[in-house]
Design a protein that fits this description.
The protein has 54 residues and is mainly α. It has one domain. Helix content is 48%, strand content 0%. The protein has 1 helix and no strands.
Length: 54
């Protein structure tokens, strides 16, 4: 029976920590960028075939 209570305690701790992570990201979401701003090139899909030199 002690093993069952330890398992339940660990599962409860994991659930609480996951809830803290989820609430934190919902409260202040991290902005994402589709592309990094330092890219100097753009390949239009279906227009250019990119091959290795040689």
């Amino acid at each position: 029976m002690k093993s069952n209570s330890v398992t339940n305690l660990l599962l409860a701790v994991i659930a609480v920590l996951l809830a803290v992570i989820a609430v934190g990201t919902l409260r202040a979401p991290v902005p994402v960028m589709a592309q990094t701003p330092d890219v100097d090139y753009f390949f239009e899909p279906g227009t250019y075939m990119v091959r290795a030199p040689g």
